[in-house]
Model the fold of this input.
Amino acid sequence: MAHSQFDTFLQEATHLDRASEHSLNDDRLFGLYTSWCYINQQAPGREATFWAAMKRRITPGCNGLRMKGPAAADYILASCPGIV
Done:
């Protein structure tokens, strides 16, 4: 089975931490996805398409996902411009 853009995003930009009580909420997960697309020079899919794909790949609510990699840094810097 070929990996989709969404599978690659989850592999490269997230880490599953089942022990954590914290996880990415919907806004942060989609924001991380758009940062990942920007860094990888890929056009992001429509938000509805993203959520349909995530519905089959992650547990809703407390999904245990954490940010990692260059997309995480880009998302954090874009979300908090006063940091730099």
Residues 5-83 form a domain with the Arc Repressor Mutant, subunit A fold (CATH 1.10.10). The beta strands are 14-16, 65-67.
